[in-house]
Structures are given as C-alpha cells and as structure tokens.
Amino acid sequence: xTIPPPTIGAILAGGLARRMGGGDKAMLGxxxxxxxxxxxxxxxxQVRRTVLNANGDPGRFAGxxxxxxxxxxxxxxxxxxxxxxxxxxxxxEASEYEWVVTVxxxxxxxxxxxAERLHAARLRDGAVLACAASAGQTHPVIALWxxxxxxxxxxxxxxxxxxxxxRFTGLYPCAIAEWGTNPVDPFFNVNTAEDxxxxxxxxxxxxxx
Length: 209
Description:
By secondary structure, the protein is of the alpha/beta class.
C-alpha cells in the first residue's frame, strides 16, 4: 500500500456511558492497562497527531500528552458532536492536515492498520469518506473524514437535528474497509459490565492483540 497522507487520530470519549453507570469508559482496565492507554498505543503510531474528545474537567487526562477537545455543541448530542469537535479542532489548530480518523474510546483491540486501510479503501472507490466494518457490520464512528466536512456536519447536527452517524455518512460516497474477526473482532467495544469481563478474557487469551 502507498503511504497514507498525514492524518490526525481522534479518540471519542465524550459520551455519558449510561450502560456502564456513568463515568469514563476509557479509564476502565483491560489487560492491565486502561482502554484509553491501549487505544493511544495502537492509534498513535498510525497518525501524525492524536487528540481526545472529552467533556468535563480535562485535568483528569493530564499526563497523556494529548490535546483534549470538548464538544462545541451543548447537551451532548452524541458521537457526531465529537466528530465535529475533532474536525473543527483540526481546521483551527492543525490546518496542514486534511484528514481525521475517529475511533470510539471503548475499543481496546483496535487494528494497527486502521488508518492505512481506510485511506486505501477511500482511494479504491474514489469515495469522500471511509468506514470500518467487521462481521458484516459497518462501524460508522470508526471512519476516515476529510476536514472540509466540518461545516456541513455542523449544519446537519445544529440546524437539521441529525444524530445518527450513519445517516450523515450516507449523504456522501463512503468506502467500506472490512476486517476479519479471528481470533478477536478488532472493533469489539465495551458497553456493559459483561463486555468488560469478556474484554478482559480476550486480553488474557490473546495478549498480543
């Protein structure tokens, strides 16, 4: 594969984690490390800069060496707000970068070739966006976004009331990059206490994941 263009990685941790009883899902432990630490270790080598979308006191993430970017829209309107925050941050603070890869904060087994393969899928299909998929399911939050979509995304969320990521990606040609699930689905996400138990089992069974 060709070397992908310079890209920013954005970890989306702005949700309310209701199914986990609130708090920061990213700070849960899996395999002796927090999910966030695992994510940073897997995503950062793929991109030029990594930022964290999170609301509340940014001091709780001190020491990670990441810019913390809060939602710019009120009332936590969902992951599209985090994606918007990342795109607008890139436009304002890192204008030399034209691409952002977004990932949710609860995916401890994120693939280490994510950015490369999303760019390859976009080029293959001549698409505007690219999304990851596994086990026949598309994961629109795990996606490659052109920074130039910041303005239309803001209009879609703020003026049109759009909340579903898949609804927005469906407005544009979107390539799909598919990953296998053996031995672990790389997009397994920790949403519940049962998921956390399973993630811990998988981390012990496959320590190289």
